[in-house]
């Protein structure tokens, strides 16, 4: 959550700094695209996390496999 707040502050600064120039607008577009990509990636990881938890509850995987897969998801996440 702390990381998300930091990203929002940086995005706000970029918005304010980019209002007066065309180069700022291009930079803002790049930042917006990166934010959208990161959001999609985190959504994908959330779905993977839910799938692993459901597989564990259903007995399809054991505790060791669950721990391995959840650790991988945590390491891949931008917002640890």
Description:
The chain is an all-alpha fold. The chain has one domain (2-76). Helices cover 82% and strands 0% of the residues. It is built from three helices and no strands. Helix 1 packs antiparallel against helix 2 (22-57) and helix 2 (22-57) runs antiparallel to helix 3 (63-76). It is elongated, with a radius of gyration of 18 Å. The termini are close together.
Task: Lay out the secondary structure.
Blueprint (H helix, E strand, L loop, with lengths): L1 H16 L4 H36 L5 H14 L4
Question: What are its keywords?
Answer:
80 residues, mainly alpha, 3 helices, 82% helix
> What fraction strand?
under 5%
The secondary-structure element order is HHH
User: Helix count, per DSSP?
Assistant: 3
Helix/strand structural class: mainly alpha
Q: State Rg.
A: 18 Å
User: How much helicity do the residues have?
Assistant: over 70%
Average of per-residue pLDDT values: 77
Shape call? elongated
How many β-strand runs? 0
As for the number of domains, it is 1
Distance between the termini: 9 Å
Largest sheet: none
Spans of at least 5 consecutive residues whose pLDDT stays below 50 are: none
Please summarize what this structure is.
By secondary structure, this protein is an all-alpha fold. Helices cover 82% and strands 0% of the residues.
